[in-house]
Design brief:
mainly beta, Immunoglobulin-like, Jelly Rolls, 2 domains, Fibronectin type III and SPRY domain containing 2
């Protein structure tokens, strides 16, 4: 579509151009005799729209953060720039902005300092220049932080608005509501967490109650969706079972558990994953008591996993500093 602007000056500001779009501009002169031939055409590219950070898909740990975003533009852009500013202990910005440039896709894994807070934003870049900044995302490297992967959740599971509590109701869903895809847990009422792909130490806690049967642990991304957590070679979990006489706890991998008895029912359980040592440990947080440790050389990155075996709820606490006893 061609747009014509009539002016008397030798300069002009063209408004209302689309972002991340290429335009041809040329000029003609007009007097009482008529219109001159057109000038040479100039090509101009408008800068892109700012990207949109996908907050629910961003994860972090004490050493790094994985930032994901949407382009915000219909047409492809050349690259992206991620900008980060470290916050001081008094809550003020450092004044120094670091940039990660020429990022080709809509995600970036950034190495960070432990125990700090950062403000992170993203710009889209094309030949016309950089876009405005996206909205700012605040990232803490005090501990491991993740959201749940809702597309993996069994249809009977509900997830709270803040994304950290899961519920299993006692009402039966109609068959029409039980539509499953290949990524959804079909047998185990479970969901995976989106742990950052960094081989270091990760720690989170899970709050439970005595009346809820649960499984918590880790699993590979491709763990069988038609199997129970801990019943296969791709998942490791702590399981709580209610029996008529006592509370029973199992630490399951490949369907096998050591014969252990826990005398004090934990209501807040710490989970410590150490890739380098190849360990997955569980703790009673209130007593600072070690419960069990799996020893395994994890061949791939794992995801936190959470399952409810009867109606109830559990709450995940992350972005917290690991206690000293978790990685002794």
């Amino acid at each position: 579509m061609m747009k014509m602007i009539l002016i008397k000056e030798t300069h002009c500001t063209v408004m209302d151009l689309l972002p991340n779009a290429q335009y041809e501009l040329w000029v003609t002169a007009t007097n009482t005799t008529g219109i001159s031939p057109a000038s040479e055409k100039a090509l101009y590219m408008t800068v892109p729209s700012p990207p949109v950070i996908k907050q629910r898909e961003c994860t972090s740990c004490p050493e790094a953060a994985l930032i994901r975003w949407e382009s915000g533009n219909t047409n492809p852009v050349d690259s992206y720039t991620v900008e980060l500013n470290e916050m001081g202990t008094d809550g003020t910005q450092s004044g120094i902005t670091e940039s990660v440039v020429a990022v080709p896709t809509c995600q970036c894994l950034i190495q960070l300092k432990t125990g700090r807070r950062y403000l992170i934003s993203v710009r889209a870049v094309n030949i016309g220049g950089p876009s405005d900044r996206s909205e700012v995302l605040s990232v803490s490297t005090t501990g491991t932080f993740f959201y749940l992967l809702e597309d993996t959740a069994h249809p009977c599971l509900s997830i709270s608005e803040d994304g950290f509590t899961i519920f299993y109701g006692d009402e039966e869903l109609p068959i029409s509501a039980m539509a499953l895809d290949d990524n959804t847990f079909a047998r185990c009422v479970a969901v995976l967490g989106d742990l950052i792909p960094v081989r270091g130490r990760h720690y989170w806690e899970v709050e439970v109650d005595d009346g809820t049967e649960f499984r918590i642990g880790v699993a590979y991304e491709d763990t069988e969706r038609n199997s129970y957590l801990g019943a296969n070679s791709t998942s490791w979990c702590m399981r709580h079972i209610l029996t008529p006489s006592r509370h029973k706890y199992e630490f399951l991998h490949n369907g096998w558990s050591p014969d252990l008895r826990i005398t004090v029912n934990p209501v807040r359980i710490g989970v410590a994953l150490d890739y380098e040592r190849g360990t997955l440990s569980f703790f009673n947080v209130d007593l600072e008591q070690h419960l069990h440790t799996f020893h395994c050389h994890f061949r791939n990155y794992v995801h936190p996993c959470f399952s409810l075996d009867n109606p109830g709820a559990l709450t995940i606490h992350n972005a917290i500093e690991a206690p000293e006893y978790a990685f002794i």
